[in-house]
């Protein structure tokens, strides 16, 4: 029996975390929500998520700093970045470091689903 993919959701906004977790679960995936990059990094070492949906603007560790720490430690999995404050330099940096995509907030549920399905299938964003 195939293991249900785990999607990590990292966002400091509780409402966003809850709505993304609900969306992810409605697709049949397991959602693990974290209030910060620090909370995600504190998790005991184990199996990485199949994909991460992360906010860019978070206190202590920004989404792009979280990505840099993950990459530096050899952890590679698709990351879907979302931000209410899009910045071309940040977009270029996270995409160059291997992000799956960089979305503005708010994004439609359909867009998030499409990007998540692409990431899980190993397809490059269109």
Automatic annotation (TrEMBL):
<dbReference type="InterPro" id="IPR001789">
    <property type="entry name" value="Sig_transdc_resp-reg_receiver"/>
</dbReference>
<protein>
    <submittedName>
        <fullName>Response regulator</fullName>
    </submittedName>
</protein>
<feature type="modified residue" description="4-aspartylphosphate">
    <location>
        <position position="55"/>
    </location>
</feature>
<feature type="domain" description="Response regulatory">
    <location>
        <begin position="6"/>
        <end position="120"/>
    </location>
</feature>
<dbReference type="Pfam" id="PF00072">
    <property type="entry name" value="Response_reg"/>
</dbReference>
<dbReference type="InterPro" id="IPR011006">
    <property type="entry name" value="CheY-like_superfamily"/>
</dbReference>
<keyword id="KW-0597">Phosphoprotein</keyword>
<dbReference type="GO" id="GO:0000160">
    <property type="term" value="P:phosphorelay signal transduction system"/>
</dbReference>
<dbReference type="InterPro" id="IPR050595">
    <property type="entry name" value="Bact_response_regulator"/>
</dbReference>
């Amino acid at each position: 029996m195939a293991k249900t993919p785990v999607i990590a959701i990292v966002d400091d906004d509780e409402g966003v975390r809850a709505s993304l977790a609900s969306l992810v679960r409605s697709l049949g995936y397991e959602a693990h929500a974290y209030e910060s990059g620090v909370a995600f990094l504190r998790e005991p070492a184990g199996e990485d998520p199949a994909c991460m949906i992360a906010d860019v603007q978070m206190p202590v560790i920004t989404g792009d700093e979280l990505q840099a720490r993950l990459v530096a430690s050899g952890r590679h999995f698709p990351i879907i970045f979302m931000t209410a404050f899009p910045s071309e330099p940040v977009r270029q940096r996270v995409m160059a470091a291997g992000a799956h995509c960089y979305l503005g907030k708010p994004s439609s549920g359909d867009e998030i689903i499409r990007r998540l399905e692409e990431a899980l299938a190993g397809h490059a964003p269109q």
